[in-house]
Design a protein that fits this description.
globular, alpha+beta, binds zinc ion, 114 residues, 5 strands, 3 helices
Amino acid sequence: MPDCLFCKIVSGEIKGNIVFEGERLVAFRDINPQAPMHVLIVPRRHIDSLNELQPSDGGIVGEMVRRAAAIAEEHGHSAGGYRTVFNCNADAGQTVFHIHLHVLGGRKFGWPPG
Ligand code: 5GP
Ligand code: ZN
């Protein structure tokens, strides 16, 4: 996906503040953090949104969620808690169409979300 921002961060064409690089995933800090810790976890492979996930993508999504827990732990937020969010399409405010899991921590979060 030549025009995808997150594909460019994954490939290194655009510099990201990387916190994790694995075989199938990359995680980097959000450019506009909404909490003291705000990391985005993305698959290296381009997938537009949750709506395009296939049954065979279960493994990668599970890996993303487990990585979120690991990153929260590394930042010291396991016990206190943290928020994970997948936004899908316009009503949820998705702005980058390469799936990403937000991992936020270091403050209290409201519920229901805005
Ligand atoms: P969405 O609204 O699609 O769920 O989340 C997209 C996120 O990407 C936003 O939180 C936004 O701040 C972040 N973002 C947008 N452009 C960049 C960028 O160039 N670099 C990084 N690291 N994050 C970005
Ligand atoms: Zn992409």
